[in-house]
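Section 3.1: Structural characterization of target chains.
Under the original work plan, the team committed to producing a structural model for every single-chain target entering the pipeline before any wet-lab resources were allocated. The record below documents one such target. The sequence was received from the expression subgroup and is listed exactly as submitted; it comprises 103 residues.
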Amino acid sequence: MRKSQTVRARRSEGAAPTPCTVFRDLRRSGLPTMTVSLVLNPVVMGEIAALTRRAEGTLRWMRHMCKIEPLFNSHGRLFAWKSELVAWLDQEQANDVATRFSP
């Protein structure tokens, strides 16, 4: 079985599409590039570091240790969807407050 056939088979099984395939499909849909970037709004590593107030190396280590979920790799660079990153930060803050004030 060729690679393209296995990819099609995996997609037909109901597997969730990766962020890269979603971006590619939107680009091919014929929408203007500005619309695609507004829909997805990917954030690059420098912006992620500024939002989380952590160094880029720390974020890479956290991704390696599976402690930060929203990061994904595309063509050798790390990205995140801004909405997922903000949701993750809110969840981390709620977890921190819950553990800090629990009896």
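The chain has six helices and three strands.
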